Amino acid sequence: MDYELDYLETMPTLFHDAVSRHGSMDLYVRKTDDGYDSITYNEMRDQVEIIGMGLHSLGYSAGNKVAILSENKPEWIMTDYACAHFGIVSVPVYPTLLPEQVSYILNDSEASLVFVSNEVQAKKIIQIKEKLPYLQKMVIYANGHALDEEWIIDYADFCEQGISLRNKVDFSLEDEGAKRTKDELWTIIYTSGTTGTPKGVMLSQFNAASNAQASQATLQFESGRKWLSFLPYSHSLERIAAHFSFFIGSTILVIEGIETVLEDLKKFKPNYFVSVPRLYEKVHNGVLQKIHAGSFIKQKIFNWATNVGSEVSTDYLQRGKEPSGWLATKYGIAQKLVFSKITELFGGEAIMTISGGAPLSKEIGEFFAAAGLLIIEGFGLTEMSPVTNANRTDFVKFGTVGPTIPDVQMRIAEDGEVLFKGPNQMLGYFKNPEATKEVIDDEGWLHTGDIGEIDDDGYLAITDRKKNLIVTSGGKNVAPAPLESKISGSRYIDQVVIVGDKRKFLSALVVPNLDALEFWAKSNGLEFEDESALLESDEVYNLLHKEIKDAQGEFAHFEQVKKFALIEKSFTIEDGELTPTLKIKRRVVEEKYRDKIDAMYPGT
Q: What is the pTM of this model?
């Protein structure tokens, strides 16, 4: 098959190309008690070799499965590259998963060794060890733990074994990497889907290598820049971002979770980062809340600045151009008075950021673009390694995920489903040929399960998931995602789930933004004993009713929410309501709040 790009075909060739070009450059930076420490590309190469030799010394070779159950850290990616060189199949596992979920993945993948980050994760494995017939060894990245069993190995001891073997053998990391072929199995990634049992997505060396290079060819990230990495490496988007940011020559600050991300953005001042929309939504709502609390003059200045920024963004920035003349002067004033304070929330030095994993509200994209922060929304799925589409920096269309990246083909089926082909298409589902046949048709097209439309410029707009479509009792088909996106744009609303399948009308479960509501209540002289009393007040109900009504004005009558119920507690991963990538598990939420839903449909 002829490709548009001339690809390096395996992960080891990608790795060594980067090391040869950026050897002495700082690659990974991580926080310490005293500040930061760093690892260069050359030091990374040596550590990857030690890990690979350590695995080899324990008897692991090409085709064996090794799991990684860890928060983000440089060792995660080092282990990933070591496996890729020695032909060992890596199996990422979200550190937020419960022991029984971890057990399923380790058993289904037949993983015989697992790397864990710390004693907390190690105890998950110990708890389920008797249910893991394939598992032989566990390596703990953290030292100083209190676990002392023969099958548990300290990372320091593991590395010593690797160094000892390296001093005895006559082959190197490069020698092992040269053995790898493009179609060889690289990893098995288990889907974190909102429904059903996870399936193991098999990706080849070429699937990943080609996707990293095609993504870089599309977005043209600059070498020598700073990245912040905070989404879990278990997520296919952050993992491929780790590889293409490595490939181009970057310095990457690795943090273990999203909890401290706003603080880390301000301190590290990254030029690039990848996020899910949730971060942008929270910052957006926080800015609006602060402006709303300000004086009349501050609100007038803000509104003037956003109008100027919107004009500049639409006519210039979203087309890769800079404004000139009087408009440029006004925009400079707007930046000084308003926008610099917004971009400082992300560190103040971002060139552009990436949004994926869920739809980004058009309004939020336009809001930050007006402020001078360009968010590039893309699309993909684990089965496509994962990137298939991305907006172009010189032609951004908010509300779309852009055209396809090089060598990816796309079409829309008769029922509106989005289909793809390309060098990044998975090999199939591990030990599940039936499920593979369900998503890859006889012509080789992968069926995504997403409903979408392609405009005249080839830009794809995703409207919803096929399985999320609501069919009312009147026979009307409704895609809930666009309406949910609009409603959650309110600064008083944090999360929302539209319901109404087989019902006469649509309703919504709404998680309010309690901080914003409390401020609004105090500003309006509304007294309340506690949060529950606040949410039960008529004033709050009327406020949220108006917010929802205003948000859905452009939707058809049958697509509009008629009733809503308030949920006091946010949906979380820990409560099983969100996937590790922060997508809402609709079935879980609907079942958990069945009584509230039924109460909105009396007599049915």
A: 0.88
